[in-house]
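Encode chain A's predicted structure.
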Amino acid sequence: MSTILERLGATTTGAPRQATCRFCGSALHHTFTDLGMSPPCESFIAAEQLNQMEPFYPLHVHVCDQCFLVQLEEYVSPQAIFTEYAYFSSYSTSWLAHAKAYTDKMVERFGLGAGSLAVELASNDGYLLQYFVEKGIPVLGVEPAANVAREAVKKGIPTLVRFFGRELAAEMVRGGTRADLVLGNNVFAHVPDIRSFADGMRLLLKPRGVVTLEFPHLMRLMEGNQFDTIYHEHFSYLSFTTAMRILAKSGLAVFDVEELPTHGGSLRVYAQLADSGPHPVGERVRELARREELAGFARMETYRAFDEQVKATKRRILAFLIDAKRDGKTIVGYGAPGKGNTLLNYCGIRSDFLDYTVDRNPYKHGKFLPGTHIPIFAPEKIRETRPDYVFILPWNLKDEIREQLSYIREWGGRCVVPIPDVEILG
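Encoded structure for chain A:
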């Protein structure tokens, strides 16, 4: 029996392994929130797989009492998550507008031109670098998902299909690649070896170059009950203070920060080489660090309160769905995002509550959501079935989606968003 268990990776003797902080190495003793067991959020199910075994992993999030990094253990490897990826950034018009505005701003602020190089880490389908190309600025993408990278190459964007870290950065530098701008939008939280990733950015940067990182702000996640942004591909949940500490350890100094509305509230952090960067530290850096300190982000009791907030939000979502079904209403979903799969699995919402969901990404059509097995259709399905409620799973895009769904008012249909609280939109 022990041999079989060992082959399956099970431990037959001894105490459970003690989880340690991926940044400072301290033992993790404190729970931030526990969302139970959930499948990888982008592992969509084909019809022929519906009766097969599906892997579920813990969504138990810890907080380090030494550096205050909120983190999920590496239950699923990055190779398993990102080698074949179902998320294509270009299907969101608002995200494309965000990317274009970013490129305009970087060119103007840092004087990028034909002699510059912009390198994007986790460049996806070229959604952002295409706007640098339009301006005649050389680019390079780094994207581990081959299926997504192919779309970028079709747009004329050179792309390395690799995972980024210290080792790849060193290879790139040996090959003569150094960047004026290294950018990472919604990738810093996705890497389990965050130290290697930060070290790699330092190596890749020219002496006077700039790093920009965008990631969801932990302060906003907690304020908005955004527990659904927790899933296996998000290994870290970052406050500004902790992010600065991680970058500083790798020789990168933060000199500016912007607060953004994206993903329910994100930060755009600007950093440079600590020993040669030319930019003075701005007041926004000092102000946000002070605000986080006053909000208690250096005290454990601040983090302990979040788990009960999550449970209360779950009860409110289920109460709405139960009441609506009791009244004979039909409910469908809009979107098949990672955050939606966390929410549905944690709350136990299946096709008994949502008849189906729709998504603009053809890659997902005809498949089923992981865990809940809710079927995914093209958006036109909503017009065919005329539901009473459309449950918007990517609530961070609610304004864009609500506009797309304006036609449901023809039959009295209404949109619903679950986060930060259940809200029926007029």
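The chain has two domains: 89-304, 326-425.
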